[in-house]
Amino acid sequence: MIKVGVIGCGYWGPNLIRNLYNAPNCEVTICCDRDESRLEKMKSLYPSIQTTTDQQVLLYGDLDAVCIATPVSTHYALAKSFLLADKHVFIEKPITHSSASCMELIRLAEQRQKVLMVGHTFEYTAAVNKIKEIIESGELGEMIYISSTRVNLGLFQPDINVIWDLAPHDISIISYLLQEDPITVNSQGRSHYNTGIEEVAMTTLNYGSGAVAFLHHSWVDPNKIRSMVFVGTKKMLVYDDISPNEKIKIFDKGVERPQYYDNFGEFQFAYRYGDIYIPRVEEYEALGAETRHFIESIQNGTRPRSDGYSGLRVVRIIEAANESLDSGGGAIPIISDIGAMMMPESTQEVIR
Ligand SMILES: NC(=O)c1ccc[n+]([C@@H]2O[C@H](COP(=O)([O-])OP(=O)(O)OC[C@H]3O[C@@H](n4cnc5c(N)ncnc54)[C@H](O)[C@@H]3O)[C@@H](O)[C@H]2O)c1
Fold it and tell me: Confidence band (pLDDT; 50, 70, 90) for 346?
C-alpha cells in the first residue's frame, strides 16, 4: 500500500484527493493546506484522513509520496523538500516556474531514485489518446497545422499569466501527439486588468517537420472554448473537449494540387468535401488514470509517462513564449537537446 499525502486543497487538490482515495494500492493518509476552512471541508468528505496546516508534518511523516496542488510559485521549494525527505513526488502542472528549477528537481529525483511526475492531465484523457492513435495510423497525413483555442471568462491567477496557466495543457497535448518539440516560439499578449500579468495571448510554435501550432489563450472571453483543430494533408480532425459525446470529429476534407499542369488555366486546386465521422471515445476520468499511473510507477519503479523531462519540455517552451512576449513577439529558439541542457554547466562550457 502506497501512503500518500496531498498538499493544497483549494480548487484542484480535492479532485486529486478523490481519485487517490479511490485508487487501488493507495492510501491517502494526510492532507495539508494553510487554510483551515479547506481542511475542514476535506475532513467532512473523508473523515479518516488526517489534516494539518504544517507542511513539516508531511516531510517527517510516514509517507511514501506527496502530491502537490498548490500555486505554481510554491512547486519547486515544496517538491525539493519532499524529494530530499525521500518521498516520491507528483506536482500539478506546470511542474515549476523555470527550467533551471525543474532540472534541479529531475537531478534530485534521479539521485534519490524517486518518481517525479507532473500532472499533464490531458495526456491521460481518452480523447487525446484516441487522437494519438488516429495520427499515428497516418489517417490525417502529414500535419500542416494545429490551432488550439482555450478561452473563458476567468479564472484570473494572481501570480502567473494566462500562458503559464493554460498553455501547459496545449503544449503537453501537442508534444505527446507529435513527439516533437518546436524549434522556435513566438508570442504576443496583453495585460489590461493586472499590470504585467497577461490575460490574453497568442502563441505560435514552429516545428522542424514543417507543422505549426497556433495557441489562443484568454481569461477574458465571452465564450468557454476548449477546442483543437488538427489539419493534415489527408484529413482534418476537430477535438472539442466540452462536447459531452462528440469530442472528436474527423473531416474527410482536403485540398489536392494537380501533379502536372501546362498552363495557369489548368492549374486548379481540387477541394475534397468528403464524409464527417465521429469515432467512439471510451469514457473514463482522466485524473483517475493519471493518479493510478503515479501509484503504479512507484510500485513498479518505472518512469511515468509525464515525468520530470515531460514537465521540462513544457516549461522551457512557456519560458520562451514569455521571453518572446516581453520582446514584442520575436522568434525565440528552443534548444532541442534536453540531454545537453541537463548537463552540469561546467561540462556545457567545455563542449561549447
Ligand atoms: N490539471 C489540471 O487540469 C489543473 C486544473 C486546475 C489547476 N491545476 C493546477 O493545480 C495547482 C493548484 O491550483 P488551484 O487552482 O487549485 O489553486 P488554489 O489557489 O485554488 O488552491 C491552492 C491551495 O494551496 C494552498 N497553499 C498554498 N501554499 C501552500 C503551502 N505552502 N502549504 C499548504 N497549502 C498551501 C492554498 O491555501 C490553497 O487552498 C496549480 O499548479 C494549477 O496549475 C491543474
Answer: low
